[in-house]
Design brief:
It is a single chain. With 255 residues, the protein is of the alpha+beta class. The chain has two domains: 39 residues, no CATH class; 200 residues, 3-Layer(bab) Sandwich (minor pseudopilin epsh fold). The chain is 40% helix and 15% strand. The strands form two sheets. Strands 1-2-3-4 form a four-stranded antiparallel β-sheet, with helices on one face. The chain has a three-stranded antiparallel β-sheet with strand order 6-5-7. The chain is globular. The two termini are 34 Å apart. It binds manganese (II) ion. The site of manganese (II) ion (MN) has 7 residues, from α2.
Length: 255
Amino acid sequence: MNARPYSETFFWKNDRKNKGSFVKANILGQACVISPTVGLIPISYELNSQYIMAFTLDPLPYANDALEPHFDALTMEIHHDRHHNAYVTNLNNAIAGTDLENMALTDILANISKYPAAVRNNGGGHFNHDLFWNILSPKGGGTPTGPLAEAINSAFGSFDEFKATFKNAAMTRFGSGWAWLCLKADGTLCVCSTPNQDNPLMDVAECPGTPLLGLDVWEHAYYLKFQNKRPDFVDTFWNVVNWEAVAERYASAQK
Ligand code: MN
């Protein structure tokens, strides 16, 4: 994890209980808590690097090789530790010293047209990858159940029809981007794709909605194992989808 090296003031952002507590850097650039009697007290480097950044990279919720033989360990490692990490670092650099440091990422995305391209690309990149890791599981695959299954059948006719629609969205996204299953404002489900690191939460999205399931179709997501065969990558994806996690996202998106 890379701490942003120097800035004058910070808020204690990632600890919900202490959200808004004031942290200030001393002249050495160390994050300090402010004591009325003692002045600035440096906090440990570990805490410093944890709290000094507006956004942080969570570890993968499973081992790099947990999705083998479907998604290979080396791709997962590079994708998370280098690509996702770079989006987080570049997002933090892009928002350093601005009010965006104190905003929720979803609020930033909802107003993304107001912000520089670096915030759009890296804020989207951070959100999208965070979602992606969490809708995958070594125990994934199978079919959705319950209200999510009913909503999929209602929108697409059947689970197989949904998968075909989703695959078409993933295949017809020219260049880099994402395919999505979303909950629209009218309460129905839709499938769409977005370019680059855009997503349906952004105010610039052609298909606005709450993303429930996303598939990264950048070549970095599949090239080591699948080379140019994006269709095989999409077919393999279904073996590792965590439908319980998608169902939870569907339930919370309806609230
Ligand atoms: Mn990616």
